[in-house]
Amino acid sequence: MTSTAKNRVPVMLYRQLLGWCRKYQEVPFNPLPPVTLEPPLVSASSLRRLCQMRAILSNNKINDHAASEFGGNRHHPAYYALYGETVSVSSGLITFPEITSASQLRAIIRSVYWLNNHSSDSTEDVTAEGRTKDQISLAFDALRSVNQLSSSELDSRQRKRDLTIKVRRRESSLPNAKFHVGQIVKQRRKGWRGAVVGWTVDEGKNEKKHKRLSSLTTKQYTLSAPNSETATESPKSRSIKYTILVDMNDSSLLHESKTVNLEAEEDLISVDNPHLQRIHNHLVKQYFDRFHRSHFVPNRLLSFTYPLDDYSSEFESENLPELAQASAAIVRGSLRIIESIISIISDHIGDDEEYDELALLSTLLIDLKRNTAAIEDTSDENEAAMLAIKWMYSFHVRVTAMQWARRVNKRVKPKIEYSLGQIVRHKLYGFRGVIVGFDEKPRIDVSNWDGLQGVEDASEKPFYHIRPDINDCTKAFGGPRDFRYCCEDNLEFISSYTGGPLELATDLNEAEWRWDPVTASYTPSQELKFMFAEEDRDNLAFVVGKISDVMAEFLLQVRDGGESNDQTFSLDDLFVQLQKGADNLDDATLTQDLIKEIWKESSDRRLRRVLDKGVAALLEGKNATAMAIFSEILEQDATYHEAWNKLATVQWMLGHAAQSRGSAMQSLRHSGDSNFQALAGLGLADMEDGNFEEAAEKFQRCLEMNPWSMVSARLAVCLDKRDPEKSDR
């Protein structure tokens, strides 16, 4: 961009912005929100031209060569706006995606400046002078924002990087840092484990020029580089302190109530036991990309700040033939079952004249095709396998939940007076609300609730899930409420309601609810209607049931079919994926949850439904009922190992320790020693009895099958109890 008297200020701002990008091009930062511009901040005529050019290139599938008027090369200022796949352009709007680097910000700045200096349309709504003022104002705002970013985050990150490099190189008499970011350590005295997420030089109690670190909730701790005077006066007072992400299960078990903690180096020791190195903490995903071998791999921000730490080097994936084979089998099998379900749905909605009334099937079909594309388009086999596992689990649970809810609600529907989406009013408190669900009886104890004193046998009456109007709640209760659980006797339908949608504390999910101005009510999705038995189409119920049966048959084949083949995969493949492919807690949880769902399946579909009934009773605290249900199942099929496992759980909760142990051993025997839940239960029983050696052995076996199991916290305690000296390592 050449400078003239007319555009001297824009050019100056342009150069300053590009200079800022050059200065901080190597410094990573947290993603900045997307940027959306519209006229007059960006030229309307240039936007129209850009939109036309992108359409031409898209239609001709041109990705690497620009049109001549745009320069035809990657160095052209508008290249990003023209070819960026995540850039959204219309004739009156351009949106750039979230900004993750200075180089990306530079591309946006160059694109915007080019667009605003190549306008040729004199018919724009604003004058050229007014447009220039708006664009200069935009540039000033951008410069102010980036300077705030550098002063509040990037400069301190660069200083922290310089300091950590000096420490690792043993410069300026700085202390050595023993532990590395991503390493797993243990607090010597208190016993909890955690992952090192940062470290810094502590100047000692006598240092007055630098504030002591106190916050345990910030994402990064920063420290100004110490001056030479301080280094000379008190070199021995310096030490290294570490920020630790504490294992949540350790924290709970040891009654520490810590998530993040600041610890001195002398209070920490390394954790070398591979069964104890996978830390459970919801903040892990903010700082680390994955778990690898014995440590967590720092993300780009931590790797920049601690470049010489052992685990900050570029991650190299391992060649694991067994994992590659398992992942390929999982992907192949999942695509086969998706194809089968798509065929079932297509056969029923292809020529159906009442297609709109089968909208649920259409929704399922779209979901299936979307997941097929996502799995097939993922080049990394392990990632594709995890996508397949995520789909299989979520789809199976979704269909199972739909059928379970429909069976229950179809039975109780004759007792329910009001329908989903209706606007009702509370008779006592006067607030209006929309019905989003109902129960035959209250699921919690309501015997002491205000407002029910005048209701006879309230615990035997239907209850409704209500989303109330916040203005009404403010009048009735002095403040907004997001949710109310109301007895049917205290509600009345507002037949004369003619107003618009209620003002709710949280908006209803648009995919599930739609306001109908004609009926002055909310219309639920067909999936909700199906689940609450407000949809009587037998054809729909038949298709959903058929999908459920096909999915169950597939999972049974996975469990009992032995080795993987062209049609499906084996349970062993899932265990390989859990042990070697799941490099974070979320992926591990999905994989183990799918394994648990497979264990629940039975060749007798009726017994599977009875098992669900027992689990529901267990979750509602009806332990005696649940025990009777599981016992009944096992009388009909004594090899149903998941029923044995559930029976062991409820027996333990009722205090029948010996019986619980026997049931858990039966579960292990019938599962081929693979039911890690039953094994964990046996370890827990040994631990309660003070048999720490036996408990540790069972917990270790459990962790060999499921490395991310929460029993690692109990294993750590058992090792401490068994051998306090050796457990430190």
Radius of gyration, taken over Cα atoms and rounded to an integer in Å = 31 Å
What class would the helix/strand composition place it in? alpha+beta
- Quickly count the helices: 24
**Assembly state of the chains shown:** single chain
- Output the strand order for the largest sheet: 7-6-5-4-8
> Roughly what percent helix?
40-55%
Q: Describe the biggest sheet?
A: 5 strands, antiparallel
Q: Could you please describe the fold and organization of this structure?
A:
By secondary structure, the protein is an alpha+beta fold. Helix content is 48%, strand content 11%. The protein has a five-stranded antiparallel sheet. Helix 12 (381-412) crosses helix 15. The longest helix has 41 residues, at 128-168. Residues 64-71, 120-126 and 207-235 have low confidence and may be disordered.
Short recap of the structure:
The chain is α+β, with helices and mostly antiparallel strands.
Keywords:
729 residues; alpha+beta; 24 helices; 17 strands
Topology readout:
Blueprint: H1 8-23, E1 35-37, H2 44-59, H3 79-83, E2 88-90, E3 93-96, H4 102-116, H5 128-168, E4 184-187, E5 193-202, H6 228-233, E6 239-246, H7 248-253, E7 260-264, E8 268-270, H8 284-287, E9 288-292, E10 295-298, H9 300-305, H10 321-349, H11 359-377, H12 381-412, E11 423-426, E12 432-439, E13 463-468, H13 470-477, E14 484-487, E15 491-493, E16 513-516, E17 521-524, H14 526-531, H15 538-560, H16 571-581, H17 585-600, H18 605-619, H19 623-636, H20 641-653, H21 657-670, H22 676-688, H23 692-705, H24 712-722
Antiparallel strand pairs: 1-3, 2-3, 4-5, 4-8, 5-6, 6-7, 9-10, 11-12, 11-15, 12-13, 13-14, 16-17
Helix pairs in contact: 1-4, 1-5, 10-11, 10-12, 10-15, 10-16, 11-12, 12-15, 12-17, 16-17, 18-19, 19-20, 20-21, 21-22, 22-23, 23-24
